[in-house]
Amino acid sequence: MSREHTVVLFIGPPGAGKGSLSEYCERELGWKQLSTGNLLRKHISEQTELGKQIDLIIKSGKLVSDELINAIVEQWLLASCSHGSTGVILDGYPRTIAQARSLNSLIERALMRSKLNVVRFLVDDQVAIDRISARFICENKDCQAVYSALKHSSMKPKETMACDKCQSPIGKRKDDQESVAKDRLSMYRKHESDLLNFYQELGMPVIECDAGQSVDNLFNEFKTLMNIH
Ligand code: ADP
Known about the structure:
The protein is α/β, with parallel strands linked by helices. The chain is 48% helix and 16% strand. The longest helix has 24 residues, at 178-201.
């Protein structure tokens, strides 16, 4: 693979705005995003073999197995890089040390010229829970646009309960109920320090951004921190 790719890992709790920032990067910078969560939800709605295996796991907020996720990401990453995207975002991966190791070995094996960047989203637990509680997504699994019912949010749908992009109904994710969201958040916090230590030990800088601000401001901060003009 001859071109140099920027591979960006978004590490942050549910509700941090990783998906929203990814959308800006796709639209404004022409990058590509893999949201492991979106991809898994698509499998569930299409009732593929994989979808049937993981349905209950996802509803309950637990993590699916490392082997399965590693294989999915490897396939996507190799395809995206060979199709010439200059920037690719992994949103929701890696979540465990085993996943981080697998990604590193993939890069060493097949994507030697890629530059890996780790971006950490800083946000308070309560802000994340409030955002998740007010979050709605488009039920069309090829879309999955995200909306917010928070009072001052710029992410309100134009029409009540219909997607601005594809007019499909919007609804709640099953794992966005408050009790499950709290479990997901504590699961994230459990793995977060291990992941950050892993990258620090490799001598890789972790770029920290303030995910408590609006997505517009977050995008500007992100570009500055990443030196994108
Ligand atoms: P969140 O808002 O919690 O970041 P996502 O949409 O990224 O949610 O993921 C939803 C669910 O999909 C997770 O709770 C988990 O069950 C599964 N999942 C997504 N990414 C991974 C991963 N890298 N490893 C294991 N499970 C994952």
